Amino acid sequence: MHNGYDGGWSGWERLGGMLASAPSAITREVGKIDVVACGTDSAIWHNSYDHGWSGWQSLGGTLTSSPTLCGWSPDRLDVFARGTDSALMHNGYDGGWSGWERLGGMLASAPSAITREAGKIDVVACGTDSAIWHNSYDHGWSGWQSLGGTLTSSPTLCGWSPDRLDVFARGTDSALMHNGYDGGWSGWERLGGMLASAPSAITREVGKIDLLAGGSDSAIWSGTAQASVPPVAAPAAPSASVRIHAKIIAPPSVPLDDSLARMVEVYATRGISVEVGSTETLNIPELSDVEVGQCVMGQTSAEQNQLFSHRDNAGGAEAVVYFVRSTIPPYNGCAAHPDGVPAVVIAQEATEWTMAHEVGHVLGLQHVNDNHRLMTGNGTRNIINPPPELVPDEGAIIMSSEFSRRS
Ligand SMILES: [Zn+2]
Questions:
Q1: Using one digit for the tens of pLDDT, what is the confidence trace for 179-208?
Q2: Which phi and psi (to 5°) does residue 198 adopt?
Q3: Which terminus of the chain has a lower count of CB atoms within 10 Å, N or C?
Q4: What's residue 230's pLDDT?
Q5: If you measure from the C-alpha of residue 192 to the centroid of ligand 1, how many angstroms do you get, rounded to a whole number?
């Protein structure tokens, strides 16, 4: 969809295509626009405007993230996206498309690329270690360099001169984080706000940066900075809360605090707060490996029932999360529980998203076949472009659940 401003906004116009990702657009010269997006066939598609739209053309490839586009001259375009093995992939146009080339790296997010002067490209992406990584081109690629940090979204990159770069991404507490290059990297600084999406930044003139990000109330927030960076809007007040209790039979590989932080992050996008009411260690080694059968809602094993009888501290409408060594058969977790006894089991080797996912089931959420979403039925280990989405309908289901509280 396209909306143009030329003294006033044109309103949204449908440009067709079957997009599986966010688009990326640039303008290389007055009156011309190039747009790329990942199609539902996982190929990258390109559309361009020059007195009219050219229509979508496939650039091929099998990509697993939104693409990013830059171009250092009217005749040059460079497209980047993450490949199936998490490496950065590149396709360049210089009279004709070069085809996809692999640039390495272990990306956990979509990349962001810009060109500050002819012949030079900078690319950043969030690595699988949650740090931001940087790679640059100047007659050849420099290779990946870590900029450190612990970020929870795709980064966005801008630069107002050949010697200046600014990187923004969301931090672990959903605040906007910034790292700038001006001869050397400044290190990460926290700029506050409560972001529900990756930010987007551009610089239109020296010393100014424009930023856009989705707030936790689903609005798009924007700000302009003079040489520094803008405040991002304050969060909307939570409109529901979920209180859970942790019972530890075997300590999880991902610490409870980390799983909780991930859950807080995802649920906050729908105005739902999450708290752990109590944490208790249970000495019941005979239930370290819990029989869960086929893990069907309402059909629990004798071992599950025995485990779920330990509900000290938990109210009737509060889910208890039992951390065990394993389930039999082996799952990351299982949300099957008897009626009126909200409980989930989480295995030691579960991912950082498992708790948020399993409690989601208790709150009434079903699986979806979409690895961008928390409730993917393909395993939270296969989540693409974290943090995964909790869509508005799912937020509404949680808010109407007997196991959440309206606030
Ligand atoms: Zn599930």
A1: 999 888 999 988 887 777 788 877 767 777
A2: -65, 145
A3: N
A4: 35
A5: 33
